[in-house]
Amino acid sequence: MKKRDSKDFLIIDIGSASVGAAVGRTEKGEVFLGKVRRQAVGAGSSEVRATLEKQTVAALDTLLKEYAGSYAKVHVVVSSPWHTGTIRTVKSKSEKPASISVNTIERLIEKYKNEKLPSAGNVDVEAAALHIKVNNYPTALHAPVTGSDIAVNLYESEMPKAVHQAFADHVRVHIDAGKIAFYTFPLLASASFRTITNESSFIFMNVGGEVTELGIVHGDALQFLGSIPSGYWTVMRALGGKSIGDTRSRLTLWEKSQLAPEDTASLDADFEKAFGPWLEELQSMLKEAGSVVPTPRTLFLMSDNESAGWIRKGIEKSGSMSLSPTIITPATLQHFLNTEQGSSFDVSLALEAIFFHMSAREVIGEPEPRRVV
Question: Domains in the chain, start-ordered, CATH in brackets?
Fold first, then answer.
């Protein structure tokens, strides 16, 4: 097995429609991303959805054959449906004011996690503080502060033990890694978008092939998580057509207003029916979120390159939600990292590289997750 430079790290991205990987390195305070690849998980059929774990492992095997070697770190990032995430507030109160530092918060989180076991059949992945208040004042704890009341906005995640083990085992077949660390998309998205946009309140949404994942950040704290058990493949199957490929092409032309008028009118009606159930689920989820947190207008939308456009158009055409969708594109992220010559640009992998290079340091608790195998 070929040995790589020990400074190289490998990012593996596992979603519901594809798996991706890229090799990263840091040099003079900058991050470089190269050898970017993505492997589809099937082609959007209902048969693939029914055997999604098996199909995903097969795609992972195919992809990782190109990355055989040794790496300083291997980061595996999973999106829904491969994890569940929870937000809660963990509090601590002392009788007298005391010095509160990053170490204080880490001990508080460790104590909480030692008392709370994962759900049956699951393993812990992360437990991270994304926002902290001391005596009701927000603080990043870049330096110790004095106080007696601590409130931690904690994000924690779990994975089914069998899925976690299957992914780890198949990574090890191809990769020489001392440690494989698992992360989840909501942690990376909430932290990274704060870093690159300077927004303190926003929605992030990752529309995968079979599942849609959403989070709301308000006042710099992750306040709501939700998911929809359908994605862009689901909508395409409902839309019908000669084939998934044909439907995909027609939607791309429709989004760009390049269809003939009669074809546009026909697809408008069909799209409204196929997209409607997904849209209703989104509306219901945002209504639920609105009962606990103000709903921001800013929506950062991530999806397959072609699908993102018609998803945004569908949201805007509905006129039923006061959202301002912004598609995350290479132009959004390219100022924050460098791509090796000849490498393609993958938005998900780039966002993840930005997290590991820039945003992870802002996460207190366990930015290096509990499940390191």
Answer: 9-83+159-196+332-365 (3.30.420.40), 85-157 (3.30.1490.110), 202-327 (3.30.420.40)
